[in-house]
Each structure stands twice: as structure tokens, then as C-alpha cells.
Amino acid sequence: MPLHIFRCDEKCRLAQRLLSHQRHRLAPLSHGLTISFGALLLLIVVGSGGCSEAAHSRSEAQRESAADDPTTETNVAARICEPYRIEVTGSNYRWHVRYPGFDGRLATSDDVLTLRHVHVPLETAVELVLKSTDYVYVLEIPIFEKKEIAVPSLEFQMEFRPTIAGQYPLLGNELCGDSHPELTGIIVVESRALFLKWLSEQKLEAPTARSY
Fold first, then answer.
1. DSSP three-state, residue 129
2. pLDDT value of residue 108
3. Helix, coil or strand: residue 201
4. How does pLDDT run across 86-122, given as a tens digit for each residue?
5. Domain 83-202 has CATH 2.60.200.30
6. Alpha helices in the chain (DSSP H)
7. Average pLDDT for residues 137-142, to the nearest whole number?
């Protein structure tokens, strides 16, 4: 059995224990000490990824000199930093997917929001940041042999580098709960140019569960 399966099972057990305690603090540890969820997050999550400030400076210069076409090689290089971070949040029994916009950063005004399906650029280091607003969810991408959980108040990462374009199953469910169709979708691997073209088109419409 692959190592990552054992790792995910361990986190599932941890998540169940965490959710049985208070949301913001764990029960007292030995010697009367307590540890917050924020501190636990620092212990579990290593690094935040994303583009460096120097990369953003280069991207800004490239953006100013590039043509308007978002699929040109210059714009592709400016918009996709490695690792390319995509936020996947389980909420109300479905996946909410957030992509960085032109600035290459999440949680800014030009983020792109979609539902259920995940698009990723080919030959690019990708990092999925898994979150949840309500329950504990499990996300699995069999083609990359990856499986991870999404837990309220915590973040977990799933890292891979797709090398073959195509559409592959994306499996999900609520931990210890019923199955939900909206947690099952497709991961689309496409060239950087096609990925950016698709990304730019998503801004013209509200997120839909069938936008793939």
C-alpha cells in the first residue's frame, strides 16, 4: 500500500480528534499548557509556496511590455509561477476552487472562482491547498496517486507535476459520511496557453459546476 495512504489515514484520525474538541483551542496538555489551532497549523504546514517578490517584479515588467493576448509566451511566463497554487475548499458538500489571477497570488482581487472541476497547467509544479468550512472531506486524484483531507481551520497540501495532457477522475467524499455527486469531478491537464485561455474565460461568468 502506498505510503501516502497511511499518511492520509493518520491525518484523518487527527482531524476527527481535533473536531471533537473546541474549534479554537485544544484540551489542556500536560503541565497546564494549551496549544491553539494556529500553532498546530504552523507545525503541520511547511512553507506557503507561491512566487517570490523578485518573480512578481519580473512578472510586472513582463506584463507592461506584453501584448494583450493572454496566451502569448510572455504572458504565460508572467502569470504562472511555480509552484502554481490552487485553493480547493470543501463547503456544503462541493468543491470550491480558487485560482490566482495575473498577479500569481491567491486571495487578491483578480482571483478566479469555479466549482467542482480543477484545471491545471501541463509541465508545471502544482500545489493544491485543501481547506474546509464545515466538514472533513477527502480528495483523491488516482492518476497522480495522491490522496489528502480537507479540515476546518487547517490547511493541507497536495503536490504534483502533470506531464501528460488529458482529463482524469477527481474523487471526493465527506469523511465518515454519505457520498455526494458534487464532490466528484474532473481534473483537466492542458498546456499553459490553453489553461490561461480557459482561466480568462471564467471571469466572464459566475462559477458553475459544469464549467469544464
1. strand
2. 87
3. helix
4. 999 999 999 999 999 888 889 988 899 999 999 999 9
5. no
6. 3-19, 37-44, 53-65, 73-79, 192-202
7. 96
DSSP reduced 3-state for 14: helix
Q: How far apart are CA 135 and CA 152, in angstroms?
A: 7
d(CA 76, CA 3): 35
Q: Tell me the whole-structure pTM to 2 decimals.
A: 0.66
Phi and psi at residue 42, in whole multiples of 5°?
-65, -30
- The cell numbers describing 149, all together, are 483531507
Which residues, at least 6 apart from 190, have a Cβ–Cβ distance to it below 8 Å?
119, 120, 121, 122, 165, 198
50-90 confidence digits (pLDDT tens): 454 444 444 454 444 444 454 444 444 447 889 999 999 99
Distance CA 44, CA 95 (A): 22
How far apart CA 195 and CA 100 sit, in angstroms, is 12
Distance of CA 25 to the CA centre of its chain: 25
Q: Output the CA–CA distances (angstroms, integers) from residue 35 to 31, 149, 154, 186, in the order listed.
A: 12, 22, 14, 38
Backbone angles phi and psi of 200, in degrees to 5: -65, -30
Q: Is 96 in contact with 115 (CB distance < 8 Å)? A: yes
Report d(CA 145, CA 209) in Å as an integer.
24
